[in-house]
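Reopening this one. Same input as before:
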Amino acid sequence: MTLRVRPARAADLDLLAGWAAAMAWETEHRRLDPATVRAGVEAGLADEARARYFVAMDEALAAGRETLGIPVGTLMLTREWSDWRNGEWWWIQSAHVDEAHRRRGVFAALYRHVEQLARAADGVVGLRLYVERNNAVAQATYRRLGMDDAGYLILERGFTPW
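Same output, byte for byte:
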């Protein structure tokens, strides 16, 4: 597998929306409204202040084709201001690797790409993500990449029905 990570573009909309819905079902057993997810991804793609998406491409799968690779995974970045640190945390969200390409370094390539961007950007204090408590496989992956339990419990109050 030869991986290259690139920024997502408008043409990736349906792929990203489909993967976001698949990830929600796989990790939380939530069926998302496809139109809502599509509109949310479209809004994120249109405005970097809301989100930045990245796509991992397997260039080896493109051998002999005119394409520059086949999409095999994605993640989304959002930003959170920290007054304690006078800087931004970048949150990794909507991470998904195509099932046929898992355990082959796709998420690690995406993570390392955004980690490099974060380290090079002024005012970024670190990377964060949240993970389901029972998702031991994902937690092990994140720990291998140098992430630790931040000691926080996330609470929420939603205003719209799932």
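So the earlier flakiness isn't reproducible anymore. For the record, The chain has a mean pLDDT of 93.
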